[in-house]
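Researcher: Next sequence.
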Amino acid sequence: MMPKRSKRTTSYRWYDPLIFYILFPLITSLLKLLLSSYRLIRVEGTELEKEALARSGGKAVYCSWHQRLAFHPLYLSKRGVTVMVSQSRDGEFAARFINALGLGDVRGSSTRGGLGALIKLKQKILAGETNGGMVVDGPLGPARVAKMGAVLLAKNSRTPLMPVMWGTDRCWVLNSWDRFIIPKPFAKIVYCHTEPILVPESASDEDLEMYRKQLEESLNMAAKWCDEQLGEEKPWRKVKKDGIPETGPIDTEA
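Model: Next structure:
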């Protein structure tokens, strides 16, 4: 059977059963083979993760950028993570892929069904069933701008935000809105946990914006650090005008 449709879900194509039930298992097997070839040569900040989990009773909301989604399922699969996935057709592909790698999913995003998904994920975290996982600039950007969802989830579930990032020495860089990167076979990987962010239940709207900016800055610094361990910073901005850099801030005074 095809996945259930809703009025708020992007329409499926007539050929999707062929993709979901014949091609997808083959593609998943090839992706698992690709992931297994990666060489994780360094993990930074594991003590920060251990301390945060000890203080929170084993709970965390792992956060990263959409651009770096490719390797996270492999690394986080042993941490009992459930992630928010878009209700779109593309989200269906993503959900099946992460499920195959051992992650759970709740359906919804900042553009569609997000509130219900956040509530469901919060309930699962509070019940001790899972940790949270969010790509905080997804599903469609803008790139490297954190949305508020993860901060609200951390506040309402009394769970620390755990920014995580990775870099690689060899990768394909797609011409997508966030310049999505896929490590090439046998690529080296550096992984990084940064300082956890604790969002108190009493946080005001002004406080929440401060924590959102802190999360954004932490992820940007971590991405740059990981990239520079194995080379240069990877492009992350899709350039549409001459003179706009692929990385770093834009000089608005120029």
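Model: The chain has one domain: 39-229. The two ends are 55 Å apart (CA to CA).
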